[in-house]
Amino acid sequence: MNRMMNNMTVQPKGNVDEDFVAMMIPHHQGAVDMAQAELRYGHNERLRRIAQEIIVEQMQEIAAMRLALGQPLGPSTPVPDQPTVPRTTNTPQAASQMHMTMPKDPR
Asked: What residue stretches are annotated with the DUF305 domain (predicted)?
């Protein structure tokens, strides 16, 4: 939340479109970050589904705003809560590796 609020604090440049995007992108990114936290640590399946939708929708809106101003989209990155071990591997070693790559529950 602090990162989102800090990034939304911009000095207006006088171009309403650019100022709008400069504040809205961090706002949308904050929603993505919170949704990723829900996917990592949440247990409620309804909320997890909502979080997945938020990530997709907010990332699409960020891309649309950048495109509208001719800004670069930035690198495409995988969702960080996905396992790094291929799902087709069903060995005890793969399971232990997947467990090691998943973030620990902070509770």
From this structure: 3-67
